[in-house]
Every structure is written in C-alpha cells, then in structure tokens.
Amino acid sequence: MTADADPSHIRWGEPVRHDPWTPPWDRDPAAIDADDVRFFTAAADPRAMLAEVNADLMVLGRKPVGYLGSVLTGSTAEWLLHHPPSPLAIIRTGRPVTRVLVCADGSIHAERAVETFASLPLARQSVVTVLSVDDGRADRGAAEKSAAALEPHVASVTELVRSGRPTDEILTLVGEGTPDLVVLGTRGLTGWRRLRLGSTASAVVRSAPCDALVASVESGDEPS
Fold it and tell me: Residue 45: is it exposed, middle or buried by C-beta count within 10 angstroms (0-12/13-18/19+)?
C-alpha cells in the first residue's frame, strides 16, 4: 500500500479508493516467500488509508527522523501504534529473523502478540527467549505459559524472569542479546485502559535497535 497524500488529489469526505498499480521494477522471486504480491495506491491521508485495511499482519518501515531517530517514530507509525487495526510489525533493519525476544506479562495483548508471532513462517527457525519482568504486578507464570504456547512453533525456547521496571529490563536484555525481533503487547496489565499504547511498549518500539512486532486486543473483546 502506498499513500498519495497530495491534498489536491484527495477526495475529502469520500471513501478511500485503493487503486492497483504495477511497480516499474522487476520482482525478485528469491526476495520474498509469497504466492501473491499486489500493489495498491490511494489518494488519502496514510492513516485513513491504513485504518480501512483488513489484514492479519501489517508491516511498516521505520521512518528515520534525524538525530531523534532513537526515540521517535514517523507520524504514521506513531498513529498506528495508538490505533492498531491489526498486529503491526515495525521493520528497522530488514535482517533475517533468527533470534527473538518475547515479552510476556500475562495480559491478553501480550498473548495476542505471541499468537501472531507463532503463526508466522519465520517462527520455525527462531531461537526464542521469553522474558517476564516481576514488578509486583505482572503474572508470575506468564513466561512459562508463553513458552509452552511457543514451543511447538519455534526452533527452541527458554524462559527468563527478572525483577525491576519492565521498560528498563526489556531494553537491557535487548542490549545484551541483540535480538532480531522483539514481540510484545501494546498494552500491559499496568497501562491506563484508555490508552492504546502502554508506556513500556512505547519506549521499547522507540528505543530498541531491532524490528518489533506489537499487537493488541480490541477494547470490545477485553474482559471487564
């Protein structure tokens, strides 16, 4: 999907129309393992265009923003993080994924992220560490539960439980292990219910030097 955000091209107030197009380059069949690749463009604000996409996974490239790149994402990515219409992969490096850090706190959002990762073909070749941070509020059995769910789908999985602030411990482990991908829910058990992005997920996505996969459960599906 490509957005044509030129205001003179946008039909304000009308439904977004996705028009197919053919790119001028030849597709490398070895570059992507997919049966069908289609290209669309839409004259619309990128947020309006993406909000109407029905997908099992949305993939977004990280937009560089100069010297603030380590703490900020592009405006479209920022909006999607707060309003994810589907599980969202934010790609920073494009490296093959073989080492994965999964963050488990027992929330339904983290469980959705684990389910999404397990469904991807790349999971089969991945060496996974499941991290649970005991801050006095997270589910103490979250790492064991997530590891058990992942075991049939990955090359290997280990559990790790640390104590402290979740954001600090996750980013420390990312720095120590340099994973290719970090997987987490967009809201943890400690987040304000009205926010789409928990503070931990926000900090990790902004600061981690690797790709990220985030997911959430729609508010209507949450337990009361």
Answer: middle
Arithmetic mean of pLDDT over the chain: 80
- Pair 125, 180 in one domain: yes
How many C-beta neighbours within 10 Å does residue 123 have? 20
CATH number of 180's domain = 3.40.50.620
Residue 3 tokens read as 């957005």
Predicted confidence (pLDDT) at residue 189 exceeds the cutoff of 80 = no
Domain match, 183 and 107 both: yes
Task: For residue 61, tell me if it sits in a domain.
Answer: no
- Position 66 pLDDT exceeds 50: no
DSSP state of 112: H
Residues in contact with 198: Cβ distance below 8 Å, sequence separation at least 6, in sequence order: 109, 185, 186, 187, 188, 190, 191
Q: Residue 223 carries which DSSP code?
A: -
69 occurs within a structural domain:
no
Same-domain pairing of 97 and 170: yes
- Asked whether residue 67 is assigned to any structural domain, the reply reads no
- Paired tokens of 12: 């304000």
What domain range includes position 153? 89-221
Question: How much of the chain, in percent, has pLDDT values that exceed 90?
Answer: 33
Determine phi and psi for 203, rounding to 5 degrees.
-65, -40
> Can you give the C-alpha Rg of the chain in angstroms?
18
Q: DSSP secondary-structure letter at 219?
A: G
If one counts every other C-beta atom within 10 angstroms of the C-beta of residue 90, the result is: 24
Instruction: Choose the weakest-confidence range: 15-19, 69-73, 131-135, 201-205.
Output: 69-73
How many domains would you assign to the chain?
Answer: 2
